[in-house]
User: Fold these one by one.
Assistant:
Number 1:
Amino acid sequence: MRGLMMDWPLTLTTILERARRLHRKREIVSRTPLGVHRYSYGDYVERVDRLRTALAGLGVGPGDRVATFAWNSYRHFEVYFAAPCMSAVIHTLNVRLFPDQLVYIANHAQDKVVLVDATLLPLFNKIRPQLTSIQHVIVLPDDGKPVDPANGLDYEELLARSAPASDYPAIDENAAAGMCYTSGTTGNPKGVVYSHRAIVLHTMVQVGADMMGMTAKDTLLAIVPLFHANAWGLPYAAVMSGAKMVWPGAFLQPADLAPLMETERVTLVGGVPTIIGALYQYLRENKSKHDISSLGRIFVGGSACPRSLMEGFRRDFGVWISHAWGMTETTPIGTVAAIKPHLENLPPEEEVGLRLKQGLPAPFVEIRIVDESGKRLPEDGKAFGELQVRGPWIVSGYYRDPRDAESFQDGWFRTGDVANIDPEGYLQLVDRTKDVVKSGGEWISSVDLENAIMMHPQVLEAAVIGVSHPKWQERPLACVVPKPGATLTPGDIIAAIKDRFATWWLPNDVVFIEAIPKTSVGKFDKKVLRDRFKDHQWPE
C-alpha cells in the first residue's frame, strides 16, 4: 500500500518563495565599511531574482559552481540563494585559508564564477593568476569606490541591467545546492556537496523548539562566517522562519558587535567560543554602555565552550550558552544541548555539567562510539571512543576525493572526534583522535584538561598537546596564555586542577606563551604547537 501524498520536491526555491510571500517586511541589516545597510526581505528576494538573471547571462548553468570570497553581508547572502535557486551551486571560499589551499579548492571545485568583496581584492588578486577555471570575476563594491574593470564586473551594475527572473527551473531535490571544503588541517581540504533535500531537511529540524527554536520574532546575529560550514545553516533557517537578520561584515571585534546587538535588539547569536568569549569580556567591562537585554540565546560550536564563559554569561547577563556540535560533513548540525524536562531542576553544578556537553542528536541523526577495532561501545558516560554519525544530511562521500574509504565504516561517517555518550543520550566530545594524548596505552583528553585550566581566574587561554616521552609514548604539555598582568607559575596551574583528575592525567609540564595559534575558523591550531614543542625537554 502506498501513501497518497504529493510528490513535492524539497528544494531551496520553496524556502525563498515562503520569504517572498510571508515575510516581505522583515529586515536584513548589514554592517559595511560605509555604515549600516538595511532593507526588507521583499527587497532581498527581488535582488536575488535579478542576480539569477545576471548569472545566467554570464553562462552559469545547472551544476556550475558559483564561488564567493566575501564577509557576511547582504550581497553575499543574496548569492547564497540565487545560485542554488537557478540550479547552480554556491561554493564559499574561506578568506582565512592559506593561498595554496584556496588555489587548490577553487581549481578542484572547478569554480566558473567568483564574487569578491572589493575590500578583499588585494588578497584575491594574489591567487587569481593560478585559478584555472574562473571565467568571470564579479566585484561586490563594499568600499563605495567605482569598480575598476581590470578587477572584474560591477555587481550593482549587473543587477541594475538585469530583469528579475520570473520563474524557477525544474530542480531535482537530490541535485547539488552548495559546496564547502574542510579546513584541511591534514592534507588537502576535502569537498562536501550539499543537496537541496539535505539542506531543506536540516533547516526544518534546525528551527525546531528542541534545536535552535528560531521564529519570525527572532533577530539573528550570525557571527559565524557564511564561508564556514554553511554558516551552521543559519541563513536558511532565518529565511524559512522570517527572522530579522543582522550581518556583521568584517567587523568582528566586540566593540563593533555590541552596538549592533543593542541597536538591532538581537535575540539570538551564533559564533565560535573564541569570539563569544571576547564579546563576553567586553560586555562585562562595559556593562553600563550597552543594553543587550533582548538577548535570549547564544549558540556556540567549533570547539568546546569553557565553563567559565558559560557560567559568566548566565551570571552576568542571564543568558545560557547552548552547545551545538557539527562539522562541514554534517551540514552541519548534529547535536544541540537541549535539556530534558526531568533534568531541568538539577543542582547548579550538575546542570552546568550537562549544558557543557554537546547535547542530544538532532531528529533523524544517529550517533555511536566505537573502539579502535570498530566495536560499538556502551553509552554509559564513561567509555569513550571514536564518534560516528549517520543521517539524511550527513555526507556519504567527498567530492572527487580518494579518501572516502578511510572516512566511512559500514555506512557511518567517521568524524575523527573522540566522545562518550551518557545513558540519557547526551554526547560529550572528549577530544579529536589526532589531539588525544596517548600515554602508556591509555588516552588522556586534552579538552578536559584545557577546560579545567581555563577556569583559573588568571588564565586567558590554554591548549594541551601530547609530546613524545621516552617512557610513556606521550605526555601532556599545557601551553598557557596568562591574562595581562597575571603572575603564574607551572605549580599554580597544576595545583588548580590536581583535585579534578587522576595523577597520571596531570600535565608533566606547563609553558607560558603569548597566544594560542588559531585555525582559519578560530579553533586552536594544535599542529603548530606540536611542531613548536616537538623537542620539548621534560623536567627531571
Note: DSSP finds 16 helices and 26 strands in the chain.
Number 2:
Amino acid sequence: MRINLAWVILVALLGIAVNSFGQQYIPDRFFVKFTDKKHTNYSLSSPEAFLSKRALERRDRMNIAIDSNDLPISRFYLDSLKKTGAQLLNTTKWLNGVVISVDTLKTLNDILAQSFVKTIDTVRYLNVLTKKAKQKKTRLNEESKAEQINNDIEDYGFAGGQIQMLNLHKFYQDGYAGEGKRIAVLDAGFSNVETMMSLGHLFDRNQIKATYDFVDCDPDVFHGSFHGQAVLSIMAARLPGNYLGSAPGADYLLLRTENAGSEYPVEELNWASGAEFADSLGADIINSSLGYTTFDFPPLSYSYQDMNGNTAYSSKAASIASNKGMLVVSSAGNLGSSSWTYVGAPADADSVLTVGAVNQEQVYADFSSIGPNSNGKLKPNVTAVGEGTAFVNSYDQVSYGAGTSFSAPLIAGAAASLWQANPEVTNMELKSAIEKSASQYLSPDALKGYGIPNFQLASVILQKRPELSSGPVSVTPNPFRNRLYVKSEINLSENTVFEITDMKGRLVSKLTPQKQGSSDIFIFNGLGHLSQGIYILRISGENILQTLKIVKA
C-alpha cells in the first residue's frame, strides 16, 4: 500500500521514525508525480530531438505513433522543484514524475504546494538502527564448479544442453547469433565485465553501446553485484570449446537499476528510467532478471492482488515498453516454494514474456514462481533451464547457477537470434510465435506456462509460408499435433505415395491415408509419436510430385 503524505510530513515534523515490525525507519526517497506535460520544450512533430534514429525506425517499422509518453519531463517543472531545495534523481517520462531526496519539512510543503504536482509517494525508507537494509540473498552460486552437461554441440560447450533444449543451435549454424539486435540488460551490477576474457569481444567489436547506473546516477556499472555479469554471460559469453551464449553477436546496453543491498519501490522507478533509456537508444529487447513483491519496509509491500499487471511501477513501465515495440523478457521469480508462490512485478504484466524455470530434464524447478497473475492471465508464458544453468562467472570459469534470473536471459538471447532471422515481424508477433512453438502450447499450466519453446519452430510460424513448392495439395493444421488433413485440388491416383522425411531427406514415415467419404480430403492419424520439429511431406504419383514443409508441435 502507499504511505499517506500527511503521515510522512508528521513523521518529519516530529523528528521521529516509523515503527514497523520492531524496526524503526525514516522516509528517504519520494516520487513526485506531475499532473501533465505542459511547458515542455519538445514537440511530437520533432521526435528526433528526444529519440534516437533506431528508436524512430522501430516505431516506423511497427506503425507505432509518437505520443505524450515519449515527451521528456517538463524542464520548467524540474527547475521549480530544484528551487525548493530538493535533490532531483531519476526522472521517468512514462510515469511522468521524478525521484527526489529532501532534507526538510519546508521542502516537502513547498513541493506539495506546486499546482503541477499530482501526488508524492514515499518509495524508500532507511532503517534507523542499521542505516541500510540487509544484503539480499540470491540463488546464484557463482563459485560452483561446473561439470559438463552436454557437449554434443561442440561450439556451445557446457551450454550445449540448455541451448539444444530450445532448438537454438540450428540458428547459430545458419549464421544467426543476434547480430544487429540490441538487448538492454536491467540488473544489479556488472562487476568485472570489463576485464573478462569471455566478454572481451563485446568491447573489441563495440557491442556495448551504452552503460548507466540509475542507482548512483553515473555511467559506471562495472561494480556492485556480480548478478548482471552472470546474466550477461548467459547471452553473450564466448569461451571457445567451453561456452557460447544464446546471443553472442547482439549489441548490449548495460543498465544498473537495482540496489542489491535493499528492496524498495525506488528500484522499480529506476527500472522505469532504465527502460526509457533503452527505448530512446533503440533497444529491441529488454532482459530483466529482477522482481518486486515485498519490501524492506513492510507497509510498502505489494499483495498478490496487486500483481495484476497494472499496479506496480515496474509493471506499468514494462507495459509501456512493450507498446513502444520492445520485447520485454522478465524472470518469473524464485518464490514458487515460498508463502508468496506467485510471479512478481514486472513479470505480472500481460505483454511481458515471463520466463519460468525447469531443470536439464525439463522438469519444473520447484522454486520457480507460478501463475496466474491476479487478473487470471497465464504466467509464466514459457520456461527454460533455470536449475543447473551453465554460466560464466567473473573469473571466466563455467559454473552452474539456479534461478529464473538464468532462464530469462536464455530466452532473451534466443529471441534476438529469432528476430534477426525474421526482421520484419513485430515484438508481439515474436512473443506469440515463441509461445505457439512451446512444448505444451495446447495445454498450458500455472507451473510452466506454454512450456519450453522450440525456436526453429517459432521461425517457421513467423514465416507463415509452410510450403516448399506450390501445387494442388495443401495441408492443415500446420503446425499439427496428432492428425493431418491433406486436401487436393486434383484427383489423386490410388498409387499416390505419401511420405514424411526429416530436413535431411531421411524417411521418417510412409503414410496410409484415410479418405473422408468421396471428398478430396485425406486424413492421416497417429502422428503423435513424431518428435517435435520440422518435416517434409512428399506426395508422388502418376499426376503429382509435390513437397510441403510441415511442423510437428
Note: Residues 12-16, 132-154 have pLDDT under 50 and may be disordered.
